[in-house]
Amino acid sequence: MTAPAAGDDRPIRVLLADDQHLVRTGFRVILEVEDDIEVVGEAADGERAVGMTRALRPDVVLMDVEMPGVDGLEATRRITAATPPEGPAVLILTTFDRDDYLFAALRAGASGFLLKNGTPEALIEAIRVLARGDGLLAPELTRRVIATFAQPGAPSGVGGTETGDAALRELTPREREVLVLVARGASNAEIAAALHLGEATVKTHVSRVLAKLGLRDRVQAVVFAYERGVVRAGG
């Protein structure tokens, strides 16, 4: 994605998309005190969020779900469909703790999903995680995602079964090991320790796995791995 490279002093560019002006103002106040984050624009609906993403090229888009006209889920689909994997990451923020929103957001290509009742610190950390190219789910949502997508035949929207299975066969044994550890929630440092590799090498392996499988980030890799039985809940 377009996030600042290691050693780059450029701040993380964030676009706020929410139909409530007070909510956007609150997010701006929280974020702009951070030296490494810059709010580059605000959108009050999904249509404008899509247009501003194209024009402003943010690193992360904070996206509300329920907005007038084009909602946040459709806006996310348009953004992720129109940009390459290295394009902006979309972080869904919603008041509603609903499974249908969560799963629709993942299918739309969102890289993260948080509830608005979280802390400012959690929001800031989520933005930094997504800017590094990783995916993120609130801890209380992860178990529900695995429980749903680990069911046999559960559709994820993360690529067709035949296409996904063919891509899975293209992974090298080492890349498959990396996929298993990613699916179990291991960080690059933990993968490096488990496989006796350098972190830079692990990062390369993760990037190749995502590219071969046609996935945007680690969140989609988790869903993909559970759906296809590469790993199993509790295994």
Automatic annotation (TrEMBL):
InterPro entries per UniProt: CheY-like_superfamily, NreC/VraR/RcsB-like_REC, Sig_transdc_resp-reg_C-effctor, Sig_transdc_resp-reg_receiver, Tscrpt_reg_LuxR_C, WalR-like
GO biological process: phosphorelay signal transduction system; regulation of DNA-templated transcription
Protein name listed in UniProt: Two component transcriptional regulator, LuxR family
SUPFAM superfamilies: C-terminal effector domain of the bipartite response regulators, CheY-like
SMART domains assigned to the protein according to its UniProt record, in alphabetical order: HTH_LUXR, REC
Domain annotation Response regulatory: ranges: 13-131
Entries under CDD domains matching the protein: LuxR_C_like, REC_NarL-like
Domain of life: Bacteria
Domain HTH luxR-type per the UniProt entry, residue ranges: 164-229
Alphabetic keyword roster: DNA-binding, Phosphoprotein, Transcription, Transcription regulation
